[in-house]
């Protein structure tokens, strides 16, 4: 079943988040994250901040379906990903979620474009060209158009992070989940990336949730959640 997307004023569509009664536990049963209720409208952006070990990445992983909660519901649109089978959750993530994580997970022996267009390797033949073209367009937009064919092991940290962004965007996701996207970047590169990330919800009704310690990124997002000891302790519209 395809999730319901809401349409914004410009005719773009997006997926909102609705979390209820979420508990995430470690394999030994220790509680890691507990969120009673959280609503994020489609087309809006949220920063999650808080001290190390607060559970920010664990929550983000659960929202992406990479971590299965012990209890609770995680709706994106009208799809509760916590009730999906592993295979269906993977499909949902592939079709609707762009992940930008700290460790870029790039393949050193491939070129920038091959990395950015990695999803094309797993996609049905009919979608491959589309994915590759979109990855290429994102590299261009992020200032890497000229070096898409160079091997990734020759790239700087900032270039790698932008390739990871192009990869996340290559399937035109309704949802973007980013974990410390600016952490490894110098200020100038970070600011460029922040401009690009902050534009995503506005230009296409995408929902953006970013774990970040970077005040410059926090300042550009609609809302700020602060986590401590596995809970959301503050929720402010930034
Ligand atoms: N699979 C797991 N098994 C056991 N403990 C885990 C597991 N995953 C996360 N934790 C623990 O959960 C807590 C929250 O970790 P998490 O990485 O979500 O924190 P964080 O707020 O993102 O921290 P940081 O800012 O340092 O990245 C930590 O104490 C971590 O050790």
Automatic annotation (TrEMBL):
Keywords of this entry: ATP-binding, Nucleotide-binding
Classification via Gene3D superfamilies: P-loop containing nucleotide triphosphate hydrolases
InterPro entries hit by this protein: AAA+_ATPase (IPR003593), ABC_transporter-like_ATP-bd (IPR003439), ABC_transporter-like_CS (IPR017871), ABC_transpr_LolD-like (IPR015854), P-loop_NTPase (IPR027417)
Domain ABC transporter positions: 17-238
Organism: Pseudotabrizicola sediminis
Family note: Belongs to the ABC transporter superfamily.
Alphabetized GO MF terms: ATP binding
Name recorded for this polypeptide: ATP-binding cassette domain-containing protein
